[in-house]
User: Which sequence fits this backbone?
């Protein structure tokens, strides 16, 4: 059985952890990575990375069978070249992670809304309850 990692926020995790991509993929036992591009600035597409060539044996057939072939795949591939050259993907992820920290800080300072979980990458989780303070927090959130 293969281990597949959904990499929608893979770049954000690597940026947050400050480790190399291999540390969280094949060195950790991941067989296949779907490296998502849409959360990193690519309009469409994902990279599917097989760390063992044998496990990719039927992939092209399965993609075609599922109807996921772009007739002009070079147009899907071109943005990836820009994203991967010079570690743009990692710079984008660091920027998104920092933006999430700033949003959490503004929510705390300007609306009195606390995080439910620590901000570790590009996700901010807050809870706005039913108290009277929550009503004023909602109003203040509208200006953020």
Assistant:
């Amino acid at each position: 059985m293969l281990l597949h990692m959904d990499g929608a926020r893979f770049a954000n995790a690597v940026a947050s952890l400050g480790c190399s991509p291999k540390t969280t993929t094949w060195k950790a036992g991941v067989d296949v990575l779907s490296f998502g591009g849409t959360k990193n600035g690519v309009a469409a597409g994902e990279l599917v990375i097989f760390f063992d060539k044998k496990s990719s044996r039927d992939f092209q057939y399965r993609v075609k069978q599922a109807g996921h072939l772009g007739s002009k795949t070079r147009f899907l591939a071109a943005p990836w070249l820009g994203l991967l050259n010079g570690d743009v993907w990692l710079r984008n992820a660091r920027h998104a992670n920092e933006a999430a920290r700033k949003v959490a800080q503004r929510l705390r300072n300007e609306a009195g809304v606390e995080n439910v979980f620590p901000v570790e990458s590009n996700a901010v989780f807050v809870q706005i309850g039913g108290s009277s303070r929550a009503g004023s927090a909602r109003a203040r959130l509208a200006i953020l």
Remarks:
- Strands lie at 4-7, 32-36, 46-50.
- The chain is about 40% helix and 10% strand.
